[in-house]
Design goal:
two-stranded antiparallel sheet, about 10% strand, alpha+beta, Ubiquitin-like (UB roll), binds FE2/S2 (inorganic) cluster, 2 domains, binds iron/sulfur cluster, Fumarate Reductase Iron-sulfur Protein, Chain B, domain 2, 7 strands
Amino acid sequence: MELKLKIWRQKNNKTKGRIVDYTLSGVETDMSFLEMLDLLNNQLIESGHEPVAFDHDCREGICGSCSLHINGVAHGPEKSTTTCQLHMRKFKDGETIYIEPFRAKAFPIIKDLIVDRSSLDRIQQAGGYVSVNTSGNTQDGNSIPIPKHDADQAFNSAACIGCGACVAACKNASAMLFTSAKVSQYSLLPQGQVERSSRVVNMLNQMDKEGFGGCTNTGACEAQCPKDISIDNIAKLNREYLFSKK
Ligand code: SF4
Ligand code: FES
């Protein structure tokens, strides 16, 4: 396949970026999207040009670092799929593909397609944990019965990989889906009860502090989340906040 790529290039967050055109041939349908970018970068390096900077780690859909806007959609055209798990068979020979970084005030661009998503880490640090006694007297997890429904719900919420696609998809650049997944996950488990009230307040305060927007229930976050995190989590977060001892 031969593709026309329109890629956002930006030296750093102090300089202006722009879309640069590339024509890339030799793309195989069974390449992943990131392998297609690898091919481009090999050609750029061989011809003495600077490769395109993009983020990736696991390439297995679990780390959440391969966050790209592809043709205006977070993680591209395949539903419930991260960029690294997207394959070039989804595109046609001769197609033009726009590749841009996730855009949000709280995700400043580092270089080209790489953004700084440490704001999500700081929300997590504000409350996304449980107090665990690791002195050696820790109770065996299997000895704490958890209703199946709660365990399933918590597991579904815990599937969030912190990629930030929900933020990029949201017209308000809100991080509510991410934050609500973390709050829900712990609120459903016995281990999460100790910090239950403070967790939701602290995480929401941090979310506001980082410059994320508010949620207006549009649902774009849910539609573009690669892990199918349900917007029901946001309703749960709102209930948690209402009943928290603020
Ligand atoms: S809720 Fe979905 S889109 Fe948002 S960070 Fe988690 S996995 Fe990514
Ligand atoms: S590189 Fe880890 S989720 Fe894509």
